[in-house]
From TrEMBL:
It comes from the Eukaryota. Residues 151-279 form the RNase H type-1 domain. This is RNase H type-1 domain-containing protein. It holds the Pfam family RNase_H. It comes from Araneus ventricosus. InterPro entries: RNaseH-like_sf, RNaseH_domain, RNaseH_sf.
Length: 297
């Protein structure tokens, strides 16, 4: 980030790759902008405060705490998808639920909720710290989160994930050197898996499909959050860490972001396959989502 009045500041490169200028950055929770105006920081704090206020409003209603009927409804209908959140969103006088949340998500021990046994091994584990030494984390140049000038289908692969009330699906499609559809894959996940997992699983399977290729491979996804997670060397998600491992050993595979719903043939094909995978895909088992996958209203 450049702070100054020059119209054309110096261009900085690393390994002959130009580093894009940032307008803001966050350091120790403080958002700093290039004009040192603090406006982005105030907006950021205000947005988070408003979001917390709305969450408390939904939980508390007119009186603090949920009724017994509402607590049971949340447990029975949402627990598989929102494990950590619902275990904590109980009446404030209850002392057992936070303990259950810690027992399941952190200690990885079984617990009972409304007489239903919860097996922690079936849920995604929260991982901490680096899996690679920072100096050995070398996949940054293989991932682009910036829009491209064009998205050729020749020798390209497109991935996507989809989730409906019927289930969750992952898919990818590959095109040959002439731009013709060469191969496709569809994976059928469960309602316990969220859209974030579906997107990541599709990327992982696409990389696995090309693992024996020595050609330069380009994989496109419309999930910007997935690419940002993969760029995070301390991501807590097991699926993300698996992709990082795959890319560490395959420097001929690049990931790029394509905007969703722009009418691109490759992206639209992957989107249609992901929706189709919910009912017709190959049954694929990955651990249930530990994090919140849909809001409680």
């Amino acid at each position: 980030m450049y702070i100054g009045k020059l119209v054309n500041p110096a261009r900085i490169k690393w390994n002959n790759i130009r580093i894009q200028k940032a307008w803001t950055l966050k350091y120790l929770g403080v958002v700093i902008d290039n004009n040192l105006s603090w406006v982005p920081h105030i907006v950021d704090r205000g947005t988070k405060s408003l979001d917390h206020y709305h969450q408390l409003q939904r939980i508390a209603g007119k009186n603090w705490g949920l009724s017994t009927a509402n607590r049971k409804l949340i447990y029975k209908t949402s627990l598989p998808h929102n494990l950590n959140i619902e275990l904590k969103n109980t009446n404030r006088h209850s002392s057992s639920s936070p303990h259950k949340s810690i027992k399941i998500s952190r200690l990885r021990q079984s617990a009972y909720v409304i007489d239903d046994p919860i097996d922690p091994t079936s849920y995604e584990e929260i991982l901490r710290g680096h899996q690679f030494h920072p100096a050995e984390f070398k996949i940054d140049n293989q991932i682009s989160t910036e829009p491209a000038l064009n998205y050729p289908t020749e020798n390209a692969t497109f991935t996507d994930g989809s989730k409906t009330t019927e289930g969750t699906g992952s898919a990818f499609c590959c095109f040959d050197e002439t731009g013709q559809l060469k191969s496709e894959w569809m994976g059928k996940l469960t309602l316990d898996n969220n859209i974030f997992q579906a997107e990541l699983f599709a990327i992982s399977q696409a990389i696995l499909h090309h693992t024996n290729s020595n050609a330069q491979i380009k994989i496109w996804t419309d999930s910007l959050s997935s690419l940002q997670a993969i760029l995070n060397p301390t991501s807590p998600h097991d699926l993300v860490r698996n992709i990082q491992n795959q890319l560490q050993s395959k420097d001929n595979i690049d990931l790029g972001w394509i905007k969703a719903h722009i009418g691109h043939y490759g992206n639209e094909t992957a989107d249609a396959l992901a929706k189709k995978a919910i009912n017709e895909g190959i049954t694929s088992k990955i651990k249930k989502a530990t994090y919140l996958s849909q809001k409680i209203s």
